[in-house]
Amino acid sequence: MDTLTITRPDDWHLHLRAGAALKDTVRDAARHFARAIVMPNLKPPIVTTEQAAAYRTAILEARPRESAWQPLMTLYLTEATSPEEIDTATSSGFVHGVKYYPAGATTHSEAGVTDIDSVSAVLERMEKNGLPLLIHGEVTDPNVDIFDREAVFIDRVLAPLMQRFSELKIVLEHITTSEAVQFVGEADSRLAATITPQHLLFNRNQLLSGGIRPHYYCLPVLKRDSHQKALINAATSGSPKYFLGTDSAPHGRHDKETACGCAGCYSHHAAIELYSEAFETAGALDKLEAFASFFGADFYGLPRNSDTVTLRKSPWQLPDSCSLGDEELIPLHAGETLQWQVVGD
Fold first, then answer.
1. pLDDT over 80 (residue 83)
2. Mean pLDDT of the region 54-71
3. Based on the number of CB atoms within 10 Å of its own CB, is 302 exposed (0-12), middle (13-18) or buried (19 or more)?
4. Cross-strand bridge partners of residue 113
5. Is 10-304 in CATH node 3.40.640.10?
6. 343: how many CB neighbours lie within 10 A of its CB?
7. Is 274 strand, coil or helix?
8. Measuring CA to CA, how many Å separate 203 from each of 5, 64, 217, 244, 246?
9. Is 148 one of the annotated active-site residues of the chain?
10. What is the per-residue pLDDT across 10-19, written as a single tens digit (0 to 9) for each?
11. Is the pLDDT of residue 28 over 80?
């Protein structure tokens, strides 16, 4: 096979940032995708529907003129979020989920939730309204090893949460472990998970072997190869519980290459091509379309896209750097060769 045509994909987990960066991040996001769930962890975070509307307007103003790509907005869950705000968000038509960050778990999560019980009334209203909860699934207990934080979160927080709110729709985002794969696979259909290109293509060897490589650093952190294999098996299984979410997260080079570098990998310079690489390596290119284009839309109750993109097997070199407003950005797998490229690029 040297060409592959699939229904235009969607990205169910994307960071765009704000300000001058938007022109570059939105351009990249809109090149090959139709829609994206946009994360709300700006500074300050997007905590109200009114703020989400203003952010959406800024994103659309940065969108290339000829593009029909659509941002699907989210709210940032805090302990001050009210059930009434959930009603407003649900009726807006443009808010498609609420993001739960455990406070301190990742980039710009300081305003997140410290005690899940404190937002019970909000979760009840989300359950009633059918508005999905999007979870960064890691505990922040300093006594828990960073490589175990996802598995511990599932045991301590997610499993009890699902028992308590038996109708709440949940996306466990950017899963990284065999424990997460198993938990999602065994749960009922109201739980799904997104998987990133970096967690399919790489493991902690790429992050740490031969020196620390900060542009492979993300949270949840890359795990050992046995977890990587479990993720590949899940993504290529044909199960509708797993779908594409890049977690593409732009940071300027100086914020990554420093004594305390930011977590996040930027992949929208070549997102669908990176996934194609992973699926071909697994011998499962025939499963890419459903993972990238069908299962996420079905879970969110949105129509599948009707147009297509075509990839050709034609080796090409990824850029060494990209622009991020006035800054330089080093993208995921910079300078390396990929085998698949979208026709027309």
1. yes
2. 97
3. middle
4. 102
5. no
6. 12
7. helix
8. 29, 35, 10, 18, 16
9. no
10. 999 999 999 9
11. yes
Q: Closest Cα partner for 242 from 176, 308, 332, 311?
A: 176
Which residue shows structure tokens 């069908």? 294
| Cis omega (within 30 of 0) for bond into 220 | yes
Choosing from 10, 11, 28, 247, which is the catalytic residue?
Answer: 247
Task: Give yes or no for a contact between 342 and 309, defined as CB atoms under 8 angstroms apart.
Answer: yes
5 token code pair: 């045509």
pLDDT of residue 110: 84
Quote the percentage of the chain above a pLDDT of 70: 100
Residue spans per domain, the chain = 10-304
CA angle 204, 208, 209 (to 5 degrees): 105
Residue-wise pLDDT tens digits, 139-191? 999 999 999 999 999 999 999 999 999 999 999 999 999 999 999 999 999 99
Own/partner contacts of 137-141, CB < 8 Å, gap of 24 or more, are 137/172, 137/173, 137/175, 137/180, 137/220, 138/102, 138/105, 138/106, 138/219, 138/220, 139/102, 140/102, 140/103, 140/104, 140/105
